[in-house]
Amino acid sequence: MSATDHRGAPRRKVLKGAKISFLRLGTSTDCTVRNLSDAGACLTVESQLGIPNDFDLVLDCDHSIRHCHVEWRAGNKLGVSFH
User: Is the residue at 29 inside a domain?
Assistant: First the structure.
């Protein structure tokens, strides 16, 4: 981890398909998990438009669900922490 990296856990690079699920709306949007740790992840999306600060992330590979909070947004990337 670099001196400017404020993450609590080191992340490993991955390239996994996933869905951002909006339970209240009954909809979802596709995303790609770019890096992952036990504490959070970096996601890429087509557009951040309409993505709330809190949502469920459903990984395509094993259908596991992680409750997420957006920590930062930049372009088509989201940094999320798991809760």
Answer: yes
Over residues 36-54, the pLDDT tens digits come to 999 999 999 999 998 999 9
Number of domains in the chain: 1
Q: What is the DSSP letter of 78?
A: E
Residue 26 lies in a domain: yes
Q: Is 70 helix (H, G, I), strand (E, B) or coil?
A: strand
Query: 49: which residues sit within 8 A by CB, 6+ positions away?
Result: none
More confident position, 76 or 27: 76
Distance CA 69, CA 36 (A): 14
User: Domain of 51?
Assistant: 12-82
Question: Where does residue 46 fall: left (phi above 0), alpha (psi -120 to 50 degrees), or beta otherwise?
Answer: alpha
How far are the Cα atoms of 2, 18, 49 from residue 53, in angstroms, in the given order?
26, 17, 11
